[in-house]
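README, section 4: Worked example with a bound small molecule

Sections 1 through 3 covered apo chains. Here we extend the same pipeline to holo records, where the ligand is supplied as SMILES alongside the sequence. The molecule in this example is shikimate-3-phosphate. Nothing else about the input changes; the structure line simply encodes the ligand pose together with the chain.
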Amino acid sequence: MDRPFLDLAPCGPLRGSLRVPGDKSVTHRGLMLLALAQGEGRLFYPLKAGDTLSTARAMQALGAEVLEEGPHFRVRGQGLRLREPEDVVDCGNAGTLMRLLLGILSGQEGLFAVLTGDASLRRRPMGRVVEPLRAMGASIDGREGGKKAPLAVRGGGLKGVSYTLPVPSAQVKSALLLAGLFAEGVTEVVEPVPTRDHTERLFRHFGLPLEAEGPRVRTRRAEPFPARDLTVPGDFSSAAFFLVAALLTPGSEVTVEGVGLNTTRTGLLKVLREMGADLEWQVVEGEAGEPVGWIRARYSPLKGVSVDPGLIPLMVDEVPVLAAAAAWAEGETYIPNLSELRVKESDRVAAIAHNLRALGVGVEEGPDWLRIQGGGVKPGEVEPFHDHRIAMAFAVAALPVGVRIWEPHWAEISYPGFFQDLKRLCGAS
Ligand SMILES: O=C(O)C1=C[C@@H](OP(=O)(O)O)[C@@H](O)[C@H](O)C1
Ligand SMILES: C=C(OP(=O)(O)O)C(=O)O
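The generated complex, written as structure tokens:
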């Protein structure tokens, strides 16, 4: 069978400004919380992409109304009580959807639901949410004793627990906090390493119970709560591709506007600055408790660095595009603490190493680290391994020399229109 591909010509300087699509994490959570609210609320500028459309469909299957109004969504919630779905709920490619929804469904008294997903999602570890949810009293079963989807949930009977996250994961934290809204007593999550805090900010936006004290976050059983409109900031993870593209293409200057600048997401900015990047940013306003502003990137000769392992959870989805920057830097870049990347949409450590080699870049791969020899890339072919971030990051890595990208449509999981935006900024038609 013919596989689709996209040939990108070498890109000249990138110039201009853009707005990237809405934040994926906030869109997933906004749809879920509006589905649990009472009455109607609008989600302004949400991400409408593969992953978040899976969430919209899932919440509809659970009884919420989700209507498109131009670029926005209008959601009519079910209150805290969802409807039993008539069929298996398909979470597509979205880990965030499956894990957070497991938390919500565990709390639904008597409701039965089965969650599945695509081949990638069915390979990903679900034991990390199933185990602590079972400790709260949830009844969940699935493949490999509940470690893999499809997973069947019979909701109800939850009691709060205190749970210390064994791996830094905002998805696990969020699943437990959502379950905690339906549990007797207090549910506490302790995170030794901070992760993105969108769930906590949205709990506050909707007036849901939340106490945060250092590494501890607590919630308790929620009373029915009214819907409230919510504006989604631009996705920092999507902006990152254009920032790095500008940094490594001579003569470039790109400004991304209206982008989320939550510091639990922007670890990449620190690493790039340390590499010598000419980057400026400013918070201009707050939306739904999230800081929003602009970021400007100008072409900069970069140098290799040894990345602080503590920054990885604050840039977990940006490691592929950091590898693109490292490929163009002078000298070696060492990126540690990557074990979580092995269980994303693809094994991203292996996918990064494969594509760097395909572009003529020296790379060594360890169990949880990468060592990349900078100095530029050669024209070649990019294999996304069915992973949106790999497709986009390596389009960026090869931008100055041109590249063939196999199955470019994977980008639509988080960024429909990515290649059009890239071509526009490159001055191509
Ligand atoms: O909570 C979220 O919205 C996300 C958390 C991260 O996953 P983990 O919780 O597995 O680290 C991230 O990789 C994913 O893209 C989105
Ligand atoms: C890991 C990602 O998403 P998810 O876990 O929701 O599939 C991602 O978007 O890079």
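What to look for in the output: The longest strand covers residues 278-287. The chain is about 30% helix and 25% strand.

Section 5 describes how to batch many such records.
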